[in-house]
Design brief:
Elements (H helix, E strand, L loop, with lengths): L15 H9 L6 H8 L3 H13 L4 E5 L9 E4 L5 E8 L3 E7 L5 E8 L6 H20 L4 E9 L3 E2 L4 E2 L13 H6 L6 E5 H13 L6 E6 L3 E7 L2 E3 L31 H5 L1 H10 L7 H9 L3 H25 L3 E5 L6 H14 L2 H4 L3 E4 L6 H15 L3
Parallel strand pairs: 3-6, 6-9, 10-13, 13-14
Antiparallel strand pairs: 1-2, 3-4, 4-5, 7-8, 10-11, 11-12
Helix pairs in contact: 1-13, 2-3, 6-13, 9-10, 10-11
């Protein structure tokens, strides 16, 4: 046991960001609560609380109920006048929003984008939109503390640089953090959109789960991984990128944007379904068109959706057998496709070990359209609470 640990208590939260979350969620209302929940000594907790108060991230609001000694000083997260900006960029749409320091959405909305217009044009427009949203939602006294940005492609989280993204011409190697640094003086945190989805869903809906896989199935396909209660990025930030895993049952194996054949993204993504239906002569322009055909019972679209579900299940079966998560949840537009979801579930139960699926939760994401910006907000809160 180290000097920081309280005797007989398992350490659960050890940094300022985790303490901030305990207060924001109502799990802790005093230093004593934080010491009990974190397993840290009272002196260490007090030191970190004072640091958070000094940064304007916590404040004292009076004395609480005594449990036999001195009445504890109550803590709360200030949610007035402090704003976090969030951007969840997709292939064709972006969700932008503002959040308070507790991580709750103040205001959000969607807008159309064209990633092929290039990073400077797209990100410049989104920064302007977020700034305007902040001013309108929070009044003239609002203070922006940071911006979280989700990108629909591989991101080296430590640098904020985009690496070899599919269907994003002109974005490879672009330094998102440096771009924003020249236009705002607040911290900017960048991550893959599937990671933000995983973080948002985990923190707000399933904080009790230690191990989970969250799949984003829309125009592209990706996944975010929660391990030991934390977002797991791997060595370079590409953990969870299932899009270029090969589907061996794909026949014929289509050519992927990465140059290989039979990749999951080339077989089962929304873009793949659109392409396959066009080849059959059906008038589809986008994934919503595909979803409408499936809802109308079109046999070609429904069959393709079932095949896509089986392909996703084939890849996830390897993930489940290897990682043994407590939950697999799917989000994105394709999550609303029941034939796809049913096929995915079937393959998982067929190909996974009984022990791995014995209590496995397989479900749709429940956080809604704001899940990505909720995750972006959490990234910013973590950064401002524990700056590098």
């Amino acid at each position: 046991m180290t000097d920081d640990e309280a005797p007989g208590v398992a350490v659960q939260g050890t940094n300022a960001g985790e303490m901030l979350r305990l207060v924001a969620t109502g799990a802790a209302a005093s230093r004593a609560d934080l010491a009990r929940l974190s397993g840290l000594s009272p002196s260490t907790v007090s030191q970190r609380v004072e640091t958070l108060i000094g940064r304007g991230l916590l404040r004292e609001v009076g004395a609480g109920k005594s449990r036999g000694g001195r009445r504890p000083r109550q803590l709360e997260v200030p949610v007035d006048g402090v704003v976090i900006g969030a951007v969840d960029l997709g292939a064709h749409h972006a969700r932008i929003g503002t959040l308070d320091l507790a991580g709750r959405v103040v205001e959000s909305r969607s807008l159309e984008v064209r990633v092929e217009d290039g990073p400077e044009s797209v990100l410049g427009t989104l920064l302007t939109e977020v700034t305007e949203l902040m001013r309108g939602a929070s009044g003239p006294g609002a203070v922006l503390r940071g911006i979280g940005v989700g990108i629909p492609g591989p991101v080296q989280h430590s640098t904020g640089r985009i690496v070899s993204p599919s269907r994003m011409p002109g974005w490879n190697g672009f330094d998102v953090v440096s771009f924003f640094a020249g236009r705002t003086d607040v911290p900017v945190v960048v991550d893959n959109d599937a990671n933000l989805m995983a973080l948002g869903e985990h923190r707000w809906k399933h904080p009790e789960l230690d191990h989970a896989v969250y799949v984003k199935a829309g125009t592209g396909i990706g996944a975010g991984v929660i391990s030991a209660g934390r977002l797991h990025r791997g060595g370079q930030g590409s953990a969870g990128d299932i899009s270029h895993c090969q589907v061996f049952t794909a026949d014929p194996a289509p050519l992927c944007s990465c140059g290989n054949t039979g990749c999951l993204e080339a077989v089962a993504s929304g873009a793949a379904l659109v392409s396959a239906l066009r080849e059959r002569g059906l008038p589809v322009q986008s994934l919503p068109d595909v979803m409408r055909l499936i809802d109308d019972g079109d046999r070609h679209a429904t069959a393709l959706a079932r095949n896509a579900g089986r392909s996703i299940g084939e890849i996830l079966a390897v993930v489940v057998n290897f990682f043994n998560p407590q939950a697999v949840a799917i989000g994105g537009l394709l999550a609303d496709c029941e034939p796809l979801l049913a096929s995915m579930r079937s393959v998982l139960y067929e190909r996974c070990l009984p022990l791995a699926t014995q209590t496995l939760l397989i479900e749709r994401l429940s956080t809604g359209a704001d899940v990505g910006i909720l995750g972006a907000g959490q990234l910013v809160i973590d950064r401002v609470a524990d700056p590098l």
